[in-house]
Amino acid sequence: MQTVLFHSTIFGPIHSRRLGSSLGINLMPDDGKICSFDCLYCEAGYNAQGKGSSGLPSREKVRIDLERKLASMQSDGHPLDVITFSGNGEPTLHPDFADIIDDTIALRDKYFPDVKISVLTNATRIGRPAVADALRKVDNNIMKLDSAVEATVEALDRPNAGYSLEKTIEYLAGFGEQGIVQTMMCCGEHDGTIIDNTTDEEVEALIAAYRVIKPREIMLYTIDRPTPEINLKRVSKDKLDSIAARITAATGIPVQVSA
Ligand code: SF4
pLDDT tens across 9-38, in order? Predict the structure, then answer.
């Protein structure tokens, strides 16, 4: 099993395929993973590897560590494009997520007013008003929708009990152009179940969902690093480009491809 964890609350900046020079904020433990999904492709590994022992960083720790890093980057003249919430799990699970967003906006405005703030979220908690309100304050809400076919979401993303695809699409639609939808395209198998979200049926289902959601943009990407399920394969750039063209033709929504 792959277990590539971020071992600090603030990490990077790293160069992101999709976001540029990105300073990361990990609101999950330094030595474990916590997520409401358990994706077969998760670079942080499966949830079964455990939550670690460090616990979640406090709001205070996030603020102090972030300010220290931004102040040092500013005095070094270090370029920065974006501050990104990602890391070892789902950031919106942090109980102080909304306050941490407020602190981050204040620090961004103080040190790098032109820098964007992005949140990578699996969208499992966007139905909660406090989470949704916080997300609406940031520049880029990048929300996961890997499939609009229930069985594929269950097989690929393996959500916690209580997840509803229908509700998630409804909540995503509530963001409309304030949201960016991100879809991981891959194929392979896991425990004898074939997984392929690039088929005609899958793409048509996604198009129907994107039409309802009407996001500002769609990001299609594929596997870039080793995944916990080794029988999952990346999708070629040509295939992603062709799916992207089909989606844009059907919906009018711009699609960004990373491969
Ligand atoms: S939603 Fe993200 S952090 Fe959670 S399991 Fe999937 S890839 Fe990993």
Answer: 999 999 876 678 999 999 999 999 999 999
Mean pLDDT score, 69-81:
96
What's the domain count of the chain? 1
How far are the Cα atoms of 70, 84, 163, 241 from residue 77, in angstroms, in the given order? 10, 19, 44, 37
Q: What is the pLDDT of residue 1?
A: 53
Q: Which of 125, 115, 130, 113 is nearest to 89 (CA)?
A: 125
Closest residue by Cα to atom 6, ligand 1, is: 39
Tell me if 43 is assigned to some domain: yes
HSE at residue 241, side-chain half, CA atoms within 13 A, is: 4
> Is the pTM here over 0.90, yes or no?
yes
- Give the closest residue (by CA) to ligand 1 atom 3: 89
% of residues, the chain, pLDDT over 70: 98
Ligand 1 neighbours, Cβ below 6 Å, are 35, 37-39, 42, 44, 89-90, 122, 144
Taking the CA of residue 157 as reference, the ligand 1 atom at the shortest distance is: 6
Quick one: pLDDT band at residue 2, thresholds 50, 70, 90? very low
Question: What is the total residue count of the chain?
Answer: 259
State in Å: Cα 97 to ligand 1 middle: 17
Asked, for residue 14, whether it belongs to a domain, the answer is: yes
Q: What is the number of the ligand 1 atom nearest to the C-alpha of 120?
A: 2
Which contiguous run of DSSP H or E holds residue 108?
helix 97-111
At 211, which CATH number? 3.20.20.70
Cα separation, 66 vs 189, in Å, equals: 40
Specify the ligand 1 atom closest to the Cα of 86.
Answer: 3
Q: Is residue 91 part of a domain?
A: yes
Q: Which domain holds residue 192?
A: 10-258
